[in-house]
Amino acid sequence: MVSRRLLYPLVTADVALFGLDERDALRVLLVRRAEDPEAGRWALPGSVLDPERDADIEATARRTFADKLRLELPHVEQVHVASGARRDPRGWSLSVVFAALVRCDHVEAQAALRIDGVDWADPDGIARRRLAFDHASHVHHALAALREKVARRALPLHLLPERFTLSHLQRACEAVLGEPLDKSAFRRRLKGSTELEPTDAWERGPQRPAQLFRAAKGFAFRAPAAPRGGEGD
Amino acid sequence: MVSRRLLYPLVTADVALFGLDERDALRVLLVRRAEDPEAGRWALPGSVLDPERDADIEATARRTFADKLRLELPHVEQVHVASGARRDPRGWSLSVVFAALVRCDHVEAQAALRIDGVDWADPDGIARRRLAFDHASHVHHALAALREKVARRALPLHLLPERFTLSHLQRACEAVLGEPLDKSAFRRRLKGSTELEPTDAWERGPQRPAQLFRAAKGFAFRAPAAPRGGEGD
DNA sequence: ATAATAGTGTCTCTAAGACACTATCCG
DNA sequence: CGGATAGTGTCTTAGAGACACTATTAT
């Protein structure tokens, strides 16, 4: 084992899966590890690369959820690479960190393979939870990337149900950014957006009905081009 | 060999090193591979991870230049991860792509270990050069990341000599973006910037002298915060 | 009626684009 | 002087922040 590891490090994919709770607060999914290393500790869900099954490292990330939580990931995105000899007791390792967004209600978070607990945690309170390995840093990177994108006007529609009100979308953005947005400016921006489509449906409640919107065809969670010469990827 | 590779993939760091040529056009450094796989083909410089020497994967990237080109990298940044069974004939592999900026004149590009040629290539003409492996895609990712940052108002000072004029900086930004910028707006932006410091020195030539500037202490190649709630990392 | 939320109008401020203008060197 | 590049001033426009306002439901 050791001799192999000298040439070929352990490669894993870890996923920071974000969702909104019933109060529309941002949450990140943690699992409690049932086995060593770091048994009993909370961590991001992740898997070791299996070259026989995984077409690429993103497939490893997606497989994590098929195996452990029976869940298909909608939007997955590379965020960071952490590597080194000391981050995992098993030796030199490299983790590709992914960020993903999901509707919380889509998830039946059930414990599974090598996992004996599942929790939707407050991402800002992560520091106090002493996560396994360097996963606190992973959460930090993923959260920063997510905030950056939303601050740059990407719409986190993957956090919302298929149809949603503009107020709900605003709450989602506020949850990500951690600060309130101005309603008028927010809606002004969306008025001219091609990423949103109004529907005929209206949400009714104990107040004025709100129009429901949905993502336009071909929607992707991307920030629009920068002021000058921004390049799409 | 094969049995190892089933569990532990080949891990490499590839570097897209950008510089400006004597006409201030953007260039990316390519090397010609002297050995198989892909012998004779042009590629990005890169190295296989050596867990005994490399503290992390960025160290692998930096070592590439110490070994092959006797060059210290100033600014290095993760850009992308490419992975899969088919991108390298040796089997399942994972490459972390880094982008780096350097003053061209700092580089004596000399062929070295396993390299029999070195060239500063036009990054936009890369498609025609049929690079080794998936390195054309690497260049594309690195260039997109670089453009994105400069479009978002990060200053690519690492492309310039220690002291430079505002016109020179503008040419550097234009080279990265591939389009002209307005002089007045450009300078207006820099007037209030804390990233630049004027010096007492002036560049003289066959025209009006230009004031020389330098990077402020603690300068880093980062885009300023987004309009609302942008997070530093 | 009130509470609650949806949705709009308007004023101001800032940054940027466009572009003409002045300044200072060399020869 | 002309040629070249450095550096400035000014007009206009687009977008965002602030915030007050109107609209429509349930009870």
Keywords:
homodimer; 233 residues; alpha+beta; seven-stranded mixed beta sheet; three-stranded antiparallel beta sheet; 28% strand; elongated; DNA-binding
Summarize the structure.
By secondary structure, chain A is of the alpha+beta class. Helices cover 24% and strands 28% of the residues of chain A.
User: Number of DSSP helices of chain A?
Assistant: 5
- The gyration radius over C-alpha positions of chain A equals 19 Å
Topology as H/E string of chain A? Answer: HEEEEHEEEHEHHEE
The share of residues in extended strands of chain A comes to 25-35%
Structural class of chain A: alpha+beta
* Backbone shape of chain A: elongated
Measured between the Cα atoms of the first and last residue of chain A, the distance is: 40 Å
Most extensive chain-chain interface = A-B, 47 and 47 residues
Helix content of chain A: 10-25%
Give the biggest beta sheet of chain A.
Answer: 7 strands, mixed
- Oligomerization status of the protein chains: homodimer
Annotation, overall tally of beta strands of chain A:
10
Q: List the uncertain runs of chain A.
A: none
**Mean pLDDT across all residues of chain A, rounded?**
91
Topology:
The structure is a homodimer of 233-residue chains.
Chain A: H1 2-7, E1 10-20, E2 26-33, E3 42-43, E4 46-48, H2 57-68, E5 75-84, E6 93-101, E7 115-121, H3 135-151, E8 164-165, H4 166-177, H5 183-191, E9 196-203, E10 210-215
Parallel strand pairs in A: 1-6
Antiparallel strand pairs in A: 1-2, 1-4, 2-3, 2-7, 5-6, 8-10, 9-10
Chain A binds a DNA duplex (27 and 27 nucleotides) through residues 165-167, 182-185, 187-189, 204-211, 227-228.
